[in-house]
Design goal:
alpha+beta; Jelly Rolls; six-stranded antiparallel sheet; about 20% strand
Length: about 280
């Protein structure tokens, strides 16, 4: 591997895109400790070959590294490399409000800076595309797309559990009952959802219900009271207040101005399960 690096300075327009690349490169690290430091931006490091440890955080915790592994580094967070063999790595620096939002949503988690993948090929392909675009001065939109793709591959560890919670969300259960359905205690459910999404189980349930309600309002002629019951609310008045508070308009207004327009409303009916 030949060491190389490039550093980029996004202009005002590029910064308005919300996510931007600040640099990229490849290098080979010898089997000796690197200096401890903290970055002023986010970074992703793909360890393609080698093994060792990543020192990370104010507690200087050591995370075991066996290539291939993807490391996520965070602004202001102490880190250092501790290779036990020659360590070949590719890296990218990035920043912007979208990067901070990805942290808040749990897609990038300072508590879990090391990700390993059963199939590393998608990560390798995406990182290679990102490096090529940065090095050749490719279109900004392609560089940003590759960054988003890379962060999207960093699926939160509890992603499957959150998907199962969303599947249950329209059932009128208590948080304790949701946890029991998922085989967890309430604290375990809260911790898993926070790790995966950066929010609470209540927020995941509420958002899922509102999204389901919007689909029913837009695509069917069901009465609002029926829609409320379909998404888990026995009190239509409470549902309407909640819907208005979160979306900025009552259910009937959303149906009137936000629904899909159909040429002949007499043909509007509730779609069959699985219909597109």
């Amino acid at each position: 591997m030949t060491d190389w690096s490039i550093y980029l300075t996004p202009n005002d327009v590029q910064r308005r895109l919300g996510l931007f690349c600040l640099g990229a490169g490849e290098q080979e690290n010898p089997a000796r400790p690197s200096p401890e430091r903290a970055l002023g931006c986010h970074a992703a490091v793909l360890v393609r070959r080698g093994r060792g440890h990543l020192l990370h955080g104010s507690d200087r915790r050591l995370h075991e590294i066996t290539a291939p592994a993807l490391l996520w580094l965070f602004p202001g967070v102490l880190h250092a490399y501790r290779p036990s063999t020659t360590w070949q790595q590719s890296w990218v620096l990035f920043g912007g409000p979208a990067a901070d939002a990805l942290v808040e949503l749990g897609h990038l988690d300072p508590a879990h800076p090391v990700r390993r993948y059963a199939d590393p090929r998608p990560v390798d392909r995406t990182f290679t595309k990102l490096l090529r675009t940065a090095r050749t001065g490719g279109p900004d939109v392609n560089l940003i797309a590759a960054l988003y793709e890379l962060t999207g591959l960093a699926d939160p560890p509890a992603g499957d559990l959150v998907a199962r919670l969303r599947a249950l969300a329209t059932r009128p259960l208590s948080i304790a009952e949701y946890a029991a359905e998922l085989g967890l205690t309430v604290p375990e459910l809260r911790d898993a959802v926070r790790l995966s999404t950066g929010t609470t189980p209540q927020e995941v349930i509420l958002t899922t219900r509102l999204n389901a309600a919007k689909a029913l309002l837009a695509e069917t002629d069901l009465p609002v009271a029926t829609v409320a019951r379909e998404v888990g609310y026995d009190d239509p008045a409470y549902f309407s207040r909640l819907f208005a508070a979160r979306t900025g308009q009552p259910p009937r207004t959303f149906r009137r101005i936000g629904s899909i327009q159909v040429a002949n409303s007499s043909f509007r009916r509730r779609p069959e399960p699985g219909a597109v």
